[in-house]
TrEMBL record:
PROSITE patterns: CYTOCHROME_P450. This is Cytochrome P450 family protein. Heme binds at C309. Belongs to the cytochrome P450 family. GO terms for biological process: lipid metabolic process. Its cofactor is heme.
Length: 364
């Protein structure tokens, strides 16, 4: 039975809050007890909100650096003008937040003892594990340097936040226009996931939960399909350090700029077939019902080669966990009459966001 719509929301904002909020970090922490290095640090909520706004502004400013002549943005930077002023202010906010957080974390580690034992299953967050790095093994890493720790936090927050929120927004945009895909995902969830447990029962362990999510092959395929059509990182920019010849025979000079259009590659008929523009999760399912492996140099959403996204598995599992939670507890409907189109940015957000109604489901 469904109640009347609970709210109307712009999901792009919601997911970006979620991907940055302690609650999603909590979900991630639950899921990844076995992969402590991939856990994000948990920042206090009020700092997260400030940071979220500043990171959003940076996204625009960084794109402008790609299209504006270098001397011009460098001049703007020196004079603290325009988008560069935004970047400088965002940098200062970020430094302030990180400085507080790093010193609090160092204090916490000091009070618990450097060799605090985690063998009881208690997890260690990313920042803690970086502060405790064994410098005799990792000579280039500098755990005593706050700047190194700040840059590490920035890399993980920037790389994991907008990408996940964008992928989820496009996923729901496509899903809600393809009711048969939605029905198949519901069926897969109902078949594979046990109903919610009573309060007497032992809560799901991270391992149980990860194992359930691994069974959701069709959902996995649908997510890959959404990212094939709308890759959160729509292009990549690379430069060779010395002149070279590409496998295609093209010569490239040292420092020349090569743009790899991932959005375009995901839509090429010669790569994906005549139905390339259709949203077909079946593309990712093998004859035996398992996942069809597509090489990373063909499906480039997470990049390929030595710089492949290290958060790939974390991202896939956390996105599946979020989708299952939403679909199990809410009826999600697209608000009619909205224009859904991409906004060409560093991260491929929707131009006007995605407006949906959420109706809470009640079990009868
Ligand atoms: C849907 C989600 C995600 C997508 C589509 C994605 C995609 C990518 C892509 C395309 C790159 C390569 C960028 C380049 O070299 O130009 C990358 C790098 C990276 N990603 Fe992700 N990512 C996602 C989620 C995450 C998450 C959740 C984390 C960590 C918590 C993460 C951490 C990183 C890091 C640290 C790098 C830099 C790796 C390097 O420079 O070698 N990503 N990601």
């Amino acid at each position: 039975m469904c109640a009347s719509p609970l709210c109307f929301i712009d999901t792009s904002t919601l997911y970006s809050r979620l991907a940055c909020s302690p609650s999603s970090l909590f979900i991630w922490a639950l899921l990844f007890l076995s992969e402590p290095l991939l856990q994000l640090t948990t920042l206090p909520l009020i700092l997260i909100e400030d940071l979220r706004t500043k990171l959003f502004l940076c996204n625009n400013a960084i794109v402008i650096r790609h299209v504006m002549p270098k001397f011009l943005w460098k001049l703007q930077n020196r004079m603290e003008l325009g988008q560069e002023k935004t970047l400088i202010e965002a940098g200062a906010t970020f430094d302030r937040i990180c400085a507080k957080y790093i010193s609090a974390k160092r204090e916490e580690i000091r009070s618990q003892g450097f060799d605090h034992d985690h063998s009881n299953g208690e997890s260690e967050d990313l920042l803690t594990s970086h502060i405790k790095l064994d410098t005799s093994k990792y000579e280039l890493l500098k755990p005593n340097d706050d700047k190194f720790l700040r840059d590490t936090i920035l890399t993980f927050i920037a790389a994991g936040r907008d990408t996940i929120s964008t992928a989820l927004t496009w996923f729901f945009g496509l899903l809600l226009k393809h009711p048969y895909v939605e029905a198949k995902i519901h069926q897969e969830i109902n078949t594979n996931l046990p109903k919610s447990r009573s309060s007497q029962e032992r809560p799901w362990s991270a391992i149980d939960r990860k194992a359930y999510l691994n069974k959701l092959v069709y959902l996995h395929g649908a997510l890959c399909e959404a990212m094939r059509l709308y890759p959160p990182v729509p292009f990549q920019r690379k430069s060779p350090i010395k002149s070279d010849v590409l496998p295609s025979g093209h010569k490239v000079d040292a420092n020349s700029i090569i743009i790899i259009p991932i959005y375009v590659l995901g839509r090429m008929r010669s790569v994906w077939g005549d139905d390339t523009l259709e949203f077909k999760p079946e593309r990712w399912i093998s004859e035996t019902g398992g996942l069809r492996h597509e090489p990373s140099f063909k499906f480039l959403a997470f990049n390929s080669g030595p710089r492949t996204c290290p958060g790939k598995h974390l991202a896939m599992t956390s996105m599946k966990a979020i989708i299952v939670e939403i679909l199990q507890h809410y009826d999600v409907k697209l608000i009619e009459g909205q224009k859904i189109e991409p906004k060409p940015r560093l991260v491929l957000q929707m131009n006007h966001g995605l407006r949906v109604t959420l109706t809470k489901k009640y079990s009868s």
